[in-house]
C-alpha cells in the first residue's frame, strides 16, 4: 500500500529535505524533477531543470526518465504526460495545484462559443483557435481538432503570426491580457480586439462586432498579475526615476504600456541577467521569482523590486511543498506511483497536434 500524505504533513522542512535527497539518490536517472520559476525556493532547489512552461515542456519531451515529477501546476503535468512516451509517468505532487485562470475556460464554454461564432460566420474557415498553455488538455485537443495551436508567453507572437497565416481571425483563450498585449505589439489596434464574455449569450457581442474583430479575447485573467497597477509604476518612479519597468504579459494593458520591457519569465530573467550593473528594476510577475532575482543579482548592484505593495504569490503554485515532494518521491522508491497525471489517449492525440504546431513555430 502506498504511504499516506497525512504523516508527511507533520514533518518539518528540514526532515523533508533530507528525505527528498535520499529518495532522489535512490531513484537516480529514473527520476527527473521539473521546476517552474514560480515555485517556492524549498522546492525549486530540488529541480533538475527549471524554466517556463515552454522550456519545461521541451525537457519533458526529451527526457528519458521513467518518472517526471512536475513542480508546477496541473496543466503543466498534463503537457508533460502528452509529450512524453506512453510508458513514462507524469506526477503532480499536489493534485490541488491548479490554475484559476486555466479554469476560466472549459470545453463546454469554448464549444458553445465556437457554435455561437459559427452562427455569425464560418468559424472553421475564418478563425484559428489559440489556447494559452495555461489550459486543460481537452482545450488543447479542441485546438488540435480545429486547425488551432497552443502558445506560451514566450512564443505568443510567433504563434499569432502563424495563426493569421492560416485564417483571418483568432479566438484566443483563456487569458485576455496575453492576447491583447501580444496582438497590440504586433500592430492589431485595440478596436479590432473584442472580449468574449463566456457568461453571456454570444459572448455579449453583436454580430457586427464579431465580424469586424481580428482577435476575439476570452474574458479570462490571472489574479496574481491582475494585482499590478499603473499607479504602482508612477509611485515607484517618483522615488527612483531611473527604474526600468519589466512586466509579464499576463499583466493588464495599462501596466504593459507603461513598461520598458514586456515578456515571459524566461525573458524577464534573461533581460535582468544581461543588464548593466547598478541598475534598478521594478518587476510585475510572481513574487517567488522576483525574490529569487533580487537575491541572485544584488551582488552586481542590481536592485530588483516587486511591483505590488501587497504580497501576491500564486497560491496554487505554492501548494507544491517539501512535504508533498517527500511523499511522492518516497512512494516511488517503494514502487508506488501516487498523483499520476494521465491524459486520455484520444484527447492527448489532438492536444499533441496543437502542441507540436507550437513547438514547430517557437523560436
Ligand atoms: O509560461 C509560463 O511558464 C508561465 C506561466 C509564465 C511565463 O511567462 O513563463
Ligand atoms: Fe495560473 Fe496566474 Fe498562477 Fe500562473 S500565476 S499558474 S496564470 S494563477
Note down, in words, how this protein is organized.
The protein is an alpha/beta fold. The protein folds into 3 domains: 3-98 and 316-343, NadA-like (Rossmann fold), CATH 3.40.50; 102-223, 3-Layer(aba) Sandwich (Rossmann fold), CATH 3.40.50; 225-306, 3-Layer(aba) Sandwich (Rossmann fold). It has helices spanning 6-9, 13-27, 41-44, 53-62, 74-83, 107-118, 123-126, 137-145, 156-166, 176-185, 207-212, 230-239, 253-257, 265-274, 287-297, 322-333, 345-361, and strands at residues 31-36, 49-51, 67-71, 89-91, 127-132, 149-151, 169-173, 193-196, 215-218, 244-247, 261-262, 280-284, 303-306. It has a 5-stranded parallel beta sheet with strand order 6-5-7-9-8, sandwiched between helices. It has a 4-stranded parallel beta sheet with strand order 2-1-3-4, covered by helices on one side. A 4-stranded parallel beta sheet has the order 11-10-12-13. Helix 2 packs parallel to helix 16 (322-333), helix 4 packs parallel to helix 5 and helix 8 (137-145) packs across helix 17 (345-361). The chain starts with 5 loop residues before the first helix and ends with a helix. Bound molecules: (~{Z})-2-methylbut-2-enedioic acid and iron/sulfur cluster. Iron/sulfur cluster binds at residues 38, 73, 99-101, 134, 222, 224, 250, 286, 314, 316-317.
Amino acid at each position: 500500500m502506498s504511504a499516506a500524505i497525512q504523516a508527511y504533513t507533520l514533518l518539518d522542512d528540514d526532515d523533508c529535505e533530507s528525505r527528498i535527497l535520499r529518495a532522489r539518490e535512490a531513484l537516480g536517472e529514473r527520476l527527473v524533477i521539473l521546476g517552474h520559476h514560480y515555485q517556492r525556493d524549498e522546492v525549486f532547489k530540488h529541480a533538475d531543470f527549471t524554466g517556463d512552461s515552454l522550456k519545461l515542456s521541451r525537457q519533458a519531451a526529451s527526457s528519458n526518465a521513467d518518472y517526471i515529477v512536475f513542480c508546477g501546476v496541473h496543466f503543466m503535468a498534463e503537457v508533460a504526460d502528452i509529450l512524453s512516451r506512453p510508458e513514462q509517468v507524469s506526477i503532480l505532487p499536489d493534485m490541488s495545484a491548479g490554475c484559476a485562470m486555466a479554469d476560466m475556460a472549459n470545453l463546454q464554454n469554448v464549444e458553445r462559443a465556437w457554435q455561437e461564432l459559427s452562427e455569425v460566420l464560418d468559424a472553421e474557415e475564418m478563425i484559428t483557435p489559440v489556447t494559452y498553455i495555461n489550459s486543460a488538455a481537452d482545450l488543447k485537443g479542441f485546438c488540435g481538432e480545429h486547425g488551432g495551436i497552443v502558445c506560451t508567453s514566450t512564443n505568443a507572437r510567433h504563434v499569432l503570426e502563424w495563426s493569421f497565416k492560416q485564417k483571418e481571425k483568432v479566438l484566443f483563450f483563456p487569458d485576455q491580457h496575453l492576447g491583447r498585449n501580444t496582438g497590440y505589439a504586433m500592430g492589431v489596434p485595440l478596436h479590432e480586439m473584442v472580449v468574449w464574455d463566456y457568461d453571456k449569450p454570444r459572448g455579449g457581442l453583436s454580430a457586427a462586432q464579431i465580424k469586424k474583430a481580428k482577435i476575439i479575447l476570452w474574458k479570462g485573467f490571472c489574479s496574481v498579475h491582475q494585482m499590478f497597477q499603473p499607479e504602482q509604476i508612477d509611485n515607484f518612479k517618483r522615488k527612483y526615476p531611473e527604474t526600468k519597468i519589466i512586466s509579464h504579459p499576463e499583466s493588464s494593458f495599462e501596466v504593459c504600456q507603461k513598461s520598458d520591457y514586456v515578456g515571459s519569465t524566461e525573458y524577464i530573467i534573461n533581460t535582468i541577467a544581461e543588464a548593466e550593473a547598478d541598475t534598478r528594476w521594478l518587476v510585475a510577475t510572481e513574487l517567488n521569482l522576483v525574490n529569487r532575482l533580487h537575491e541572485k543579482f544584488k551582488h552586481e548592484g542590481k536592485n530588483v523590486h516587486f511591483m505590488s505593495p501587497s504580497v501576491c504569490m500564486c497560491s496554487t503554485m505554492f501548494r507544491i511543498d517539501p512535504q508533498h515532494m517527500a511523499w511522492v518521491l518516497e512512494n516511488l522508491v517503494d514502487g508506488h506511483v501516487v498523483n499520476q497525471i494521465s491524459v486520455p489517449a484520444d484527447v492527448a492525440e489532438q492536444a499533441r497536434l496543437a502542441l507540436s504546431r507550437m513547438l514547430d513555430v517557437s523560436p
